Amino acid sequence: MSENGKRRRYDRAFKVEAVRLVTDQRRKVTEVARNLGINPNQLHRWKRQLAEEGQSAFPGKGRLTPEQEELRRLRRDLADVTEERDILKKALAVFSSRRR
Questions:
Q1: Using CA atoms, how far apart are residues 70 and 96, in angstroms rounded to an integer?
Q2: Are residues 47 and 19 in contact, defined by beta-carbon separation less than 8 angstroms?
Q3: Among the listed ranges 5-9, 46-50, 76-80, which one has the minimum average pLDDT value?
Q4: Where are the domains of the chain?
Q5: pTM for this predicted structure
Q6: Distance (Å, rounded) from C-alpha 8 to C-alpha 29?
Q7: How many CB atoms neighbour CB 10 within 10 A?
Q8: How far is it, in rounded angstroms, from Cα 8 to Cα 56?
Q9: What backbone torsions phi and psi does residue 35 show, to the nearest 5 degrees?
């Protein structure tokens, strides 16, 4: 957190450039982090995230990676199907009790 207690936010370009300084120019993480005014652990995290996720890394506030978006969609679909199943179960119970 910064001095006033609020988190600083960095855009994708800043993060990619910071990682590039470490990877392409072979500068030390601690040196780059100090020059940019960020925590070295944060820079290590960005480096790992960029290596793992490539172009989908750092999607931005409120944006999801394609995998996260698919997972969200699948969960929503599952909730819909579960709700439909429960409605059908209740309807079956109602119609079954009327026949007796």
A1: 38
A2: yes
A3: 5-9
A4: 1-61, 64-100
A5: 0.55
A6: 19
A7: 15
A8: 21
A9: -65, -35
Q: Which amino acid is at 89?
A: K
pLDDT of residue 39 exceeding 60:
yes
Domain at 1-61, CATH from 1.10.10, 3.60.70, 3.40.50, 3.90.25: 1.10.10
Cα distance between residue 76 and residue 49, in whole Å: 27
* Rounded CA separation 96/25 (Å): 74
Spatial separation of the C-alpha atoms in residues 75 and 68, rounded to whole Å = 11
* Cβ burial, residue 50 (10 Å; 0-12/13-18/19+): buried
Per-residue pLDDT reduced to its tens digit, 11-25: 888 998 999 898 888
d(CA 21, CA 6): 26
Place of tokens 């790992």: 48
